[in-house]
User: Which sequence fits this backbone?
């Protein structure tokens, strides 16, 4: 797919992908309209203020490996960009383990019985991989069990994964596991078992003053200065053919166009419905594809601790099945200076089926009460139910697109349908892929390059299909601990 030099482009969605795509296009001199349904930019890369406390929609940082994204972010943010140490944990049964999985740490916190059982299961699983090498893994569950063994999989991974992604782990794609789970190498596990494991390597992330939303705001300003029209509160309801391009009908009833190309970074199903609105003969077929797409929703409970937080970790994944939430994060880790000194903030994250889940109260007040009571059972937070208070709750229905077998088959039809109609899907929502902010921004650049005729949609899609651990971050050498 190649663009028409000088033609007008519509970019739908002002998250990291859409903002980066619009900036690239406008900087290249292409007339660009960036339409965002909400009244603010950023998508999931948004920062809210409750009282005098700053909160992101979950913990968001940037890896910023050397390359174009790092250069762009550094230029846009300047001295507002800084690095923060990244300390992640996995909590279960009163113990905070290092995360991603660290064999030396797990062994140090386990008795000899647990070490022997975990080692035996691990070695059996790794050996079985060679026997079954001709048959690739068919699911998240199979991929993880083959690499960790039954004991470590059940104890360290399965409980957290069920809370996060739902009970049907055997239906999730192995790609889902490859992008989320660290693959523990045999040499490291054997060294840990023998007591010769290396010290943990310190990890860092990049962050910005005022929360991750500062980046989105800075990108939006650059888009405007480059000549792009940034339109907030503008939801695209339908796309209609106009000659060789498109007209866009907005929710307000306004019709805008014509656009030679459309980059769609909002929900994939909205893109398909926008096109099929002018193709009624395809309605039943498109609906059958869309019915196969599932999401996990996310609920964020924001708490004022009435005191500085523990600062024992940046974020903690909660594998303990006795606790209802699946992640804790302390925003103060990401802040600096006066912002950090003032922070009394804590966030609890729940994952649920799209539209809600019976075990998670739909009433914010009930959810807050349950959250504070459960948090008081976590070491270091025993008094939080007495001293803390809930500042607010944010519910996101379509937070994580679930790449299971039905979704894979649907995407094989949906993506060609969109691209054949001149629509380039990109980003987490647009491609129905799990991506972090760095990858989302890279997708925006590649989508813009496709419009400008110097790239292809395959280069966009390939980013979402990379078989790489997404949480691998910048490492800066052995930590002092």
Assistant:
């Amino acid at each position: 797919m190649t663009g028409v030099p000088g033609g007008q482009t519509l970019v739908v969605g002002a998250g990291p992908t859409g903002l980066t795509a619009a900036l690239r296009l406008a900087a290249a001199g292409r007339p660009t309209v960036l339409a965002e349904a909400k009244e603010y930019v950023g998508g999931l890369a948004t920062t809210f203020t409750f009282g005098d406390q700053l909160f992101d929609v979950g913990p968001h940082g940037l890896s910023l490996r050397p390359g174009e994204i790092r250069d762009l972010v550094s230029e846009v943010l300047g001295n507002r960009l800084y690095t923060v140490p990244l300390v992640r944990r996995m909590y279960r049964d009163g113990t905070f383990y290092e995360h991603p999985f660290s064999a030396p740490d797990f062994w140090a916190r386990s008795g000899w019985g647990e070490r022997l059982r975990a080692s035996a299961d691990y070695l059996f699983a790794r050996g079985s991989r060679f026997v079954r090498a001709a048959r690739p893994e068919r699911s998240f569950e199979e991929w993880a069990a083959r690499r960790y063994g039954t004991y470590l999989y059940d104890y360290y991974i399965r409980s957290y994964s069920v809370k996060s992604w739902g009970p049907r782990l055997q239906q999730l794609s192995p790609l889902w596991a490859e992008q989320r789970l660290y693959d523990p190498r045999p040499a490291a596990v054997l060294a840990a078992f023998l007591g010769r494991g290396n010290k943990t390597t310190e990890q860092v992330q990049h962050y910005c003053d005022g929360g991750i939303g500062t980046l989105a705001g800075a990108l939006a300003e650059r888009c405007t200065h480059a000549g792009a029209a940034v339109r907030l509160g503008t939801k695209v309801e339908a796309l209609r053919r106009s000659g060789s391009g498109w007209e866009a009908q907005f929710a307000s009833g306004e019709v805008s166009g014509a656009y030679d190309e459309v980059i769609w970074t909002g929900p994939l199903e909205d893109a398909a419905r926008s096109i099929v609105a002018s193709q009624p003969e395809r309605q039943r077929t498109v609906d059958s594809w869309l019915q196969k797409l599932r999401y996990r929703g996310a609920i964020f409970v924001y708490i004022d601790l009435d005191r500085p937080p523990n600062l024992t970790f940046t974020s903690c994944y909660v594998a303990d099945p006795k606790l209802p939430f699946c992640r804790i994060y302390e925003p103060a880790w990401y802040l600096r200076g006066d912002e950090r000194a003032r922070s009394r903030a804590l966030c609890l994250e729940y994952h649920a089926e799209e539209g809600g889940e019976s075990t998670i109260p739909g009433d914010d007040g009930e959810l807050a009460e349950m959250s504070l009571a459960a948090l008081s059972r976590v070491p270091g937070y025993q008094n939080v139910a007495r001293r803390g208070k809930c500042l607010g709750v944010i519910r996101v229905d379509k937070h994580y697109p679930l790449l299971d077998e039905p979704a894979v088959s649907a995407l094989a039809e949906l993506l060609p349908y969109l691209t054949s109609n001149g629509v380039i899907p990109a980003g987490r929502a647009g491609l129905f892929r799990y991506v972090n902010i760095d990858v989302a921004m890279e997708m925006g650049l590649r989508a813009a390059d496709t419009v400008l005729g110097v790239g292809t949609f395959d280069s966009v899609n390939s980013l979402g299909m990379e078989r790489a651990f997404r949480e691998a971050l910048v490492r800066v050498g052995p930590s002092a601990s």
